[in-house]
C-alpha cells in the first residue's frame, strides 16, 4: 500500500526512517513523490581522455583493467596504490587509504567499473583518491541516468536511490485520472510516470513524467478550488454594525462601490460558521486598508479581537498611526507590537491582550510569537501577504486556529493564474479607485534628456510638493555603470542646492528609516533618494513625483508598485521612467505599457504575456499551497490545460456521477 510507512521497506531501519522523516518523507507515497532536483547522465562512459587540466567537472565513470598493485607508507599511513588503465589505455593511479578490503577484492588483470573524481592530472598521468569500484556497471549506474535528490543531513544519494527503487517496486501505483485523460492530454500513466521521474531513459522522459504528475496535481487543485467556491453561494449577508456606521460617517468621503462589495463579502464570511480565508486584492491606494479597519470593527462590535500584521516595522508603524487617527475616536483600544517591544512594556501589553483589554493589535510577524496570547482572536489581517514566507504563515495558522483571516495584496495577479495561486482562498477585488483620484501621468525619459526632467520637478518643489528618486543600487560598483543611491544623492544636491533630502535604503536600521520617513511626511524633507525599499505601502499624500532611473531594469509589477507611492491624494502626480540608450525594443514596449495605463490588473496581464509567468510568480508565494511536481513559474501551459479540464468536468458532471469520473471523486475525497 502506498500509504504505508517507509520502514516497511527492507533496507530502511529505524535510524534511516528518522533521516527520511527529517526530509518530510514518511510514507511510500512521500518517497516516490520525492522529486529529483537534477539528473546525472551516465548513459555513456566518460573516460580519462575526456578530462583536461583546469576542468571543473573531473568526474569519470568507465571500465578499467587492473595492471598492478603496491603499497607504501606516507606520513605514517599505509597507502594502497592500484595501477589501472581504461579502454583507451590511459593510465590511472588509484590511491586508497584505509580500504583494506580493496586489496583482496581487486585482482590484477581483471576488469572492473570505476566512478571517480580525478584529483591530479599531470603529463598524461591521472590520479584519484576519491572513487568507487564495482564489478558491474549497473552497480555504478553506468548506462543510466541517475536522479540527484535535494538532500540534507545524513542521507546520501545512493541510499535514497535504493530506497526509492524498492519503494517503486513495492507500491501499487494506480491511475488517478479517467482513462480518457491520459490520451487527451498526452500524459504518462501514473505508474510509468513515477518510475520515469526517478529512473528515466532520457531527460525528455523525466520531464514528461514530471509534467504528467504536475497536471494531475494542478487538476485536483483547480477542481477542489472550483468546488469550494461553488458551495458558498446562498449565504446570508452580514450586518453593518454601529461601530462601522460611526467610522463611515466620520470620513470626509464615501466608500466606493467596490469597497462596499468587498465589505459585504467579508461581513458575510465573518457571520458564517466556516472560517474565512479571503484575499482582498486591489491596486495601491484603492482603499483596502480602510476596508480592513471596517472589517475589524465588525468583529470588535461582537467582542472579538483583531490582529493586523504588516511585513515591515515601518509599515506596521504607519498602519498603527493611521489606525489611531481613525479608530481611537470610536473608543477602540489599539496596541502596537514588534520585535522591538521589550521588557515591561511588552509584559504589560501581553497581559492586556490576554485579558481582552486590547481590541486590535497591530505589528510585524512578532504578533504571532510564542508568548502572544489573545483572549478572543477573531480576525487576523495580513497586509502585503506575498511578502511573508510559508513558515510565518504556518505560525499564524497555529495561533488563530479559529480566527477568520483576511489577506491583502496590492500586487494583483493575472486572472489566469489567480485560481491556481490562491486556490485555497476566496477573492475580493477592488478595481475602482476612490473618487477624485487623478491618474498618475507617466513620462518616458531618455537618459540624455534628464536635465529637462530635473527642471520640471523643481516646479513641483516650488509648490511644496515632494519627490522620490529611485535607483537600482545602493552603491556604485566597478562592474556596472548603473546609477546608485549614494552617488546620485551627491549629484542631486548639486542640481537642487536649496532642497532638503535624505538617503533611504534597506541597509539602514528600522529606527533610522522610520525617522527619515517621519520627517519626509512632516514636510521637513523635499525628496528622498532611495532604492526600491519604498516599494511597499508608504503613504505620503504630498509626494507627487517619482523618478525611477534604469526603469528597464524593473519588472512591470515592481514599477507599478513604485509608481503607486505617488498619486495618493487629489493632487496631480507624475512618474518619470528614465531609460538608458541600450534599452531593447521589448524593454521599450514594456515601458510604453506603463505610460499607457494605470490599471494594475492590466499591467499584470501584460507582464504575463511579455515575460511569461516565471518572472511574475518566481519569487512569490502562492496561496501557501506547496506543490510537489508543478512549478507555478514554469508550468503555465499545464496550468491552463488543467484549469480547462477541471472547469469542463465541473460543468458537465458536477456530482462526478459518470462512471468514468468515479476515480476523480475518490481521489478528491482522499486528497482534499
Ligand atoms: P490601500 O491599502 O489599498 O493602499 P488605503 O486604504 O491606504 O489604500 O487608502 C489610500 C488612501 O485613500 C487613504 O488615505 C484613504 O484614507 C483614502 N481612501 C480610502 N477609501 C477612499 C474613498 N472611498 N474615497 C476617497 N479616499 C479614500
Ligand atoms: Mg496597503
TrEMBL record:
Primary gene name: recG
Pfam families reported in the protein's UniProt record: DEAD (PF00270), Helicase_C (PF00271), RecG_dom3_C (PF19833), RecG_wedge (PF17191)
The enzyme's E.C. designation: 5.6.2.4
Catalytic activity of the protein: ATP + H2O = ADP + phosphate + H(+); Couples ATP hydrolysis with the unwinding of duplex DNA by translocating in the 3'-5' direction
Biological process terms in GO annotation: DNA recombination; DNA repair
Entries under InterPro entries matching the protein: ATP-dep_DNA_helicase_RecG, DEAD/DEAH_box_helicase_dom, Helicase_ATP-bd, Helicase_C-like, NA-bd_OB-fold, P-loop_NTPase, RecG/Mfd, RecG_dom3_C
Family: Belongs to the helicase family. RecG subfamily.
Residue runs in coiled coils: none
PANTHER family the UniProt entry points to: ATP-DEPENDENT DNA HELICASE HOMOLOG RECG, CHLOROPLASTIC
Residue ranges of every copy of the Helicase C-terminal domain listed in the record: 439-609
Alphabetical UniProt keywords: ATP-binding, DNA damage, DNA recombination, DNA repair, DNA-binding, Helicase, Hydrolase, Isomerase, Nucleotide-binding
Protein name per its UniProtKB record: ATP-dependent DNA helicase RecG
Gene3D superfamilies noted in UniProt: P-loop containing nucleotide triphosphate hydrolases
Described purpose of this protein according to its UniProt entry: Plays a critical role in recombination and DNA repair. Helps process Holliday junction intermediates to mature products by catalyzing branch migration. Has replication fork regression activity, unwinds stalled or blocked replication forks to make a HJ that can be resolved. Has a DNA unwinding activity characteristic of a DNA helicase with 3'-5' polarity.
Keyword Manganese: no
GO terms, molecular function: 3'-5' DNA helicase activity; ATP binding; DNA binding; hydrolase activity
Location of the Helicase ATP-binding domain: 269-430
Enzyme class: isomerase
DNA damage in keyword set: yes
Origin: domain of life: Bacteria
Amino acid at each position: 500500500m502506498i500509504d504505508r510507512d517507509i520502514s516497511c521497506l527492507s533496507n530502511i531501519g529505524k535510524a534511516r526512517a528518522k533521516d527520511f522523516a527529517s526530509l518530510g518523507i514518511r510514507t511510500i507515497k512521500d518517497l516516490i513523490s520525492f522529486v529529483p532536483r537534477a539528473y546525472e547522465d551516465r548513459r555513456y562512459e566518460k573516460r580519462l581522455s575526456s578530462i583536461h587540466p583546469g576542468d571543473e567537472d573531473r568526474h569519470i565513470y568507465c571500465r578499467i583493467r587492473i595492471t598492478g598493485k603496491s603499497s607504501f607508507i606516507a606520513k605514517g599511513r599505509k597507502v594502497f596504490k592500484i595501477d589501472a588503465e581504461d579502454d583507451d589505455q590511459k593510465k590511472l593511479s588509484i590511491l586508497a587509504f584505509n580500504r583494506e578490503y580493496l586489496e583482496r577484492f581487486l585482482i590484477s588483470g581483471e576488469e572492473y567499473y570505476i566512478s571517480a573524481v580525478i584529483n591530479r592530472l599531470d603529463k598524461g598521468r591521472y590520479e584519484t583518491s576519491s572513487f568507487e569500484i564495482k564489478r558491474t556497471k549497473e552497480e555504478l549506474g553506468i548506462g543510466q541516468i541517475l536522479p540527484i535528490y535535494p538532500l540534507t543531513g545524513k542521507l546520501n544519494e545512493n541510499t535514497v536511490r535504493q530506497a526509492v527503487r524498492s519503494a517503486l517496486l513495492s507500491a501499487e501505483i494506480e491511475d488517478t485520472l479517467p482513462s480518457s485523460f491520459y490520451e487527451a492530454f498526452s500524459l504518462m500513466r501514473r505508474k510509468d510516470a513515477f518510475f520515469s521521474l526517478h529512473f528515466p531513459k532520457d531527460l525528455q522522459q523525466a520531464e514528461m513524467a514530471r509534467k504528467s504528475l504536475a497536471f494531475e496535481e494542478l487538476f485536483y487543485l483547480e477542481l477542489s478550488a472550483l468546488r469550494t467556491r461553488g458551495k458558498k453561494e446562498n449565504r446570508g449577508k452580514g450586518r453593518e454594525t454601529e461601530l462601522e456606521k460611526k467610522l463611515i460617517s466620520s470620513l470626509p468621503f464615501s466608500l466606493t462601490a467596490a469597497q462596499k462589495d468587498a465589505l459585504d463579502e467579508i461581513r458575510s464570511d465573518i457571520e458564517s460558521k466556516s472560517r474565512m480565508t479571503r484575499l482582498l486584492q486591489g491596486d495601491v491606494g484603492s482603499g483596502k486598508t480602510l476596508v480592513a479597519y471596517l472589517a475589524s470593527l465588525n468583529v470588535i462590535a461582537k467582542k472579538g479581537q483583531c490582529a493586523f500584521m504588516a511585513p515591515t516595522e515601518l509599515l506596521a508603524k504607519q498602519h498603527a498611526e493611521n489606525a489611531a487617527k481613525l479608530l481611537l475616536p470610536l473608543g477602540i483600544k489599539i496596541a502596537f507590537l514588534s520585535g522591538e517591544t521589550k521588557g515591561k512594556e511588552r509584559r504589560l501589553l501581553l497581559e492586556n491582550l490576554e485579558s481582552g483589554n486590547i481590541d486590535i493589535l497591530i505589528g510585524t510577524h512578532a504578533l504571532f510569537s510564542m508568548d502572544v496570547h489573545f483572549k478572543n482572536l477573531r480576525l487576523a489581517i495580513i497586509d502585503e501577504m506575498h511578502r511573508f514566507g510559508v513558515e510565518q504563515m504556518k505560525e499564524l495558522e497555529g495561533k488563530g486556529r479559529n480566527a477568520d483571516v483576511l489577506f491583502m495584496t496590492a500586487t494583483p495577479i493575472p486572472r489566469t493564474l489567480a485560481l491556481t495561486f490562491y486556490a485555497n482562498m476566496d477573492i475580493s477585488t477592488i478595481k475602482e479607485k476612490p473618487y477624485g483620484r487623478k491618474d498618475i501621468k507617466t513620462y518616458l525619459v531618455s537618459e540624455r534628456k534628464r536635465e529637462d526632467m530635473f527642471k520640471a520637478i523643481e516646479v513641483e518643489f516650488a509648490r511644496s510638493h515632494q519627490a522620490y528618486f529611485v535607483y537600482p543600487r545602493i552603491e556604485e560598483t566597478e562592474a556596472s555603470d548603473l546609477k546608485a543611491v549614494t552617488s546620485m544623492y551627491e549629484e542631486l544636491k548639486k542640481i537642487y542646492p536649496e532642497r532638503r533630502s535624505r538617503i533611504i535604503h534597506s541597509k539602514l536600521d528600522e529606527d533610522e528609516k522610520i525617522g527619515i520617513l517621519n520627517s519626509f511626511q512632516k514636510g521637513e524633507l523635499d525628496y528622498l533618494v532611495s532604492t526600491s525599499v519604498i516599494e511597499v505601502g508608504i503613504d505620503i499624500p504630498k509626494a507627487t513625483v517619482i523618478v525611477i532611473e534604469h526603469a528597464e531594469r524593473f519588472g512591470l509589477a515592481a514599477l507599478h508598485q513604485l509608481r503607486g507611492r505617488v498619486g495618493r491624494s487629489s493632487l496631480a502626480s507624475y512618474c518619470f521612467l528614465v531609460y538608458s540608450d541600450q534599452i531593447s525594443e521589448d524593454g521599450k514596449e514594456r515601458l510604453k505599457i506603463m505610460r499607457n495605463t494605470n490599471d494594475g490588473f492590466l499591467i499584470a496581464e501584460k507582464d504575463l504575456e511579455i515575460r511569461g509567468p516565471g518572472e511574475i510568480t518566481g519569487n512569490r508565494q502562492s496561496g501557501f499551497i506547496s506543490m510537489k511536481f508543478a512549478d507555478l513559474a514554469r508550468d503555465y501551459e499545464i496550468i491552463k490545460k488543467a484549469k480547462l479540464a477541471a472547469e469542463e468536468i465541473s460543468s458537465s458532471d458536477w456530482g462526478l456521477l459518470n462512471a468514468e469520473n468515479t476515480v476523480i471523486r475518490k481521489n478528491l475525497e482522499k486528497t482534499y
